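Need Aspartate--tRNA(Asp/Asn) ligase's 3D structure for a figure. Predict it.
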Amino acid sequence: MRSHYCGQLNETLVDQTVTVCGWVHRRRDHGGVIFLDMRDRDGIAQFVVDPDTAEAFANADRARSEYVLRITGRVRLRPEGTQNPNMPTGMIEVLAKEVEVLNTAATPPFQLDDHGKVGEEVRLKHRYIDLRRPDMIEKLRLRSRISHNVRAYLENQGFLDIETPVLTRATPEGARDYLVPSRTHAGSFFALPQSPQLFKQLLMVAGFDRYYQIAKCFRDEDLRADRQPEFTQIDIEASFVEEDDIMGITEAMIRQLFQEVLNVELSEFPRMTWQEAMDRFGSDKPDLRIPLELTDVDDLMQQVDFKVFSGPASADDGRVAALKVPGGAKLSRKEIDEYTKFVGIYGAKGLAWIKVNERAKGLDGLQSPIVKFMENIVEELLDRVGAEDGDIIFFGADKARIVNEAIGALRVKLGADLDLYTQEWAPLWVVDFPMFEADDNGRLSPLHHPFTAPSCSPEELKADPAKALSRAYDMVLNGTELGGGSIRIHHQAMQSTVFEILGIGEEEAREKFGFLLDALQYGAPPHGGLAFGLDRLVMLMVGAKTIREVIAFPKTQSAGCLMTDAPGEVSADQLKELNIRLRQKVKAESAAE
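Structure prediction for Aspartate--tRNA(Asp/Asn) ligase:
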């Protein structure tokens, strides 16, 4: 129906006849001559319709915003003084000969140019309108380029694209499963996969050696800006590899991706242990663009007569950390109070601080409600954090977990609020994660998943599981975890040991993972892999604030779809087929009786 897209029209087509199809972006009537800005997925172009072409003029005259038109005309240069060099099609216009209205359109719920004035709920309700915006088209176009680039790279590296099941059985991987009732197996349920983890390991046992998949994954968990109930994962697994092999392959992939898609040469990917990341930044995904670090001051605070500090400093699970902010003494008391409220979100009971106004004056040059409690250690404290005039020092004192989360988050917020970024992109690898983490009751759970290989023998693992490290690695970019992976357990004895430590008995392990344990008996090779969050990757590369901006049809924060009103109720007949009876209906029937 067309010869060109709107965005393809340029000076090379002058005097040629073209036909385009698209939507009316804007209509202007200038003294009997109608100008139509036509839009399609490739861009916007200007069309001129004059009264000499009566039928075309009449159709253009009745056209309104978002009408679907087909226009044929001759490309010509715009008159001097009306050209727009900032627009790809801004040097030309098309003198229309034929204008055909393919479809009319109701007044849209919002103007595409004014989308910022409407709430996100309105845009999600009418997502098909929102997706017409050029910036949304560009985001999804770039997402397509990223997926294509990833596929091409992995295929060139000998990886095979293999699909794995979407209907499987529930397995514990850190989040609630989405369950699907089975009609043919009454009372039984499928689960949607949280990841293709077990199947890609089975593919390694089967000898496929190098596998990848751009896979849909599902997790029934509370949402955040970078979480959705269904998300897309670049899933990678390989046999006969060690950590450096997987990290090398995937780092090269990300480097090539940024180079070819964004023309960005990423800097060195430093490696940092999990412990170092937590000590220095309070996070296992530190944003290295921000030149602020946490400093341990436990030994100093043990010497002060101030239990808010000395208590956590002396406790086995406590920590006192200082965060120096260069130039931060200019912060007002109101701003400091706001930061105090902010760290409270993470469980901090308060936020102590010292302003360094004139260090040469000693205590008289410091401003703080707490400095009187630490006169004996204040000079050593200032030396340790490298404090200078005009700085502010914030303190976190509590359980180590709370301090890390609160002051780590404060570090990131200060970096954004004070624009402290030193570079645009800051990648790194975080390695040597703990094998397990303990809850408040001391119960161990896997920090990643129960199929991650430890860096010790089964005997050493059993002897002191809390101190065991795993062979896991995460790629981090600008404070966001792009992807995580590990070398997997490929010996049945080691897998059984991990299950035992996690309190998964032999019978439960056989019930939930029998097929994996069986497979590990039949010559499972050493293997490992990594999975990237495609949505997060695209979000970072396009500069979006949430992954909802780079998913065509996302869910809301409450895991619903405003456009389709999903999830929705189903009929009684459907429930009966599935042998399901809803609790509220049972109560209603009982009340009626």
